[in-house]
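Support request from a user on the community tier.

User writes: "When I paste my structure tokens into the form, the page sometimes reloads and wipes my input. The last time it worked, I copied everything first. Here is what I submitted, just in case something in the input itself triggers the reload:"
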């Protein structure tokens, strides 16, 4: 019975009053069941379906990104998702995001097939994705070089080593280990190709959020529980997403390197991003790394047949 109540809440996002009437239980009991079950899901499933990434995990992810999305040395895509919550008591404006509602941030790294590799939950909604990454455990390990990423290796057909990196959008800082698109102002065709190719691989994390939200409708509602319980619910939902993906065995099919034009999608340039007040300037090594990857996309080994559609 407890599992049924919990599943209905996750899948439909219905309010606690409706659950209380349906299962003939008090509000306090329903809250306790949801809170405890979320913790148990994380405790039982996390070691199997969302373990701490190892060097071998990153290597396998990079190999899959090259097979599916033709991104060399890419170990994952990073993005943040705002989880709508009820205003916490005495919280002021800490949880109000740039869209105008109260939220916490789910910071996630996805592999090429749409499974989460690592997540961080609970950052204040007012922070940008870049700030949330900086404050997360994952972001701190990334900056301190303690993520156990593979040693740099040459890009396909190249001789010099190139670092392994994460694909991200404009909201994140440019680093040697984080590749982001060029600013939209003053784009050349060369840079447009880079932006399109990076966006093509980065969308895997957005697909992860979309698939998870479509299965667990609670993410479309305002969660009216305390912050600790909301954190546990989000972590449990991410775990269940990985569980479903891996147990169903449904993964994306690799696309040929010289695929058709239909294999490439143009990024929506009208997508709004929050003001990035906490973002630091890119370092010269990071800029040089992006330039090298940009050049690779124009070589025989790195180009795609359909990438000319990014040009004007």
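"...and here is what came back when it finally went through:"
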């Amino acid at each position: 019975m407890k599992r049924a109540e919990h599943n209905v809440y996750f899948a439909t996002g219905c309010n606690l009053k409706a659950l209380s009437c349906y299962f003939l239980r008090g509000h306090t009991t329903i809250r306790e069941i949801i809170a405890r079950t979320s913790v148990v899901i994380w405790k039982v499933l996390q070691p199997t379906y969302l373990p701490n990434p190892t060097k071998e995990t990153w290597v396998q992810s990079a190999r899959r990104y090259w097979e599916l999305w033709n991104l060399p040395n890419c170990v994952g895509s990073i993005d943040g998702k705002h989880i709508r919550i009820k205003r916490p008591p005495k919280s002021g404006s800490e949880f109000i995001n740039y869209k105008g509602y109260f939220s916490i941030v789910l910071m996630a790294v996805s592999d090429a097939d749409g499974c989460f590799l690592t997540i961080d939950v609970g950052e204040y909604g007012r922070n940008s994705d870049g700030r949330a990454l900086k404050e997360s455990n994952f972001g701190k390990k990334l900056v301190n070089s303690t993520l156990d990423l593979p040693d740099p290796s040459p890009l396909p057909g190249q001789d010099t080593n190139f670092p392994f990196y994460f694909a991200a959008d404009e909201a994140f800082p440019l680093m040697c280990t984080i590749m982001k698109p060029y600013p939209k102002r003053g784009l050349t065709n060369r840079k447009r190709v880079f932006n399109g190719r990076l966006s093509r691989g980065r969308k895997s994390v957005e697909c992860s959020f979309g698939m998870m939200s479509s299965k667990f409708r609670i993410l479309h509602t305002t969660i009216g529980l305390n912050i600790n319980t909301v954190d546990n619910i989000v972590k449990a939902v991410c775990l269940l997403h990985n569980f479903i993906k891996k147990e169903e065995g449904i993964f994306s099919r690799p696309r040929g390197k010289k695929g058709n034009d239909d294999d490439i999608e143009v990024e929506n340039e009208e997508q709004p991003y929050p003001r990035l007040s906490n973002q630091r300037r890119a370092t010269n090594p990071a800029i040089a790394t992006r330039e090298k990857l940009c050049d690779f996309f124009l070589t025989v080994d790195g180009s795609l047949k359909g990438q000319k559609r990014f040009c004007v």
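Agent notes: The reload is a front-end session timeout and is unrelated to the input. Strands lie at 74-84, 103-110, 116-124, 153-154, 161-162, 165-167, 178-179. The CA atoms of residues 79 and 290 lie 19 Å apart. Escalated to web team.
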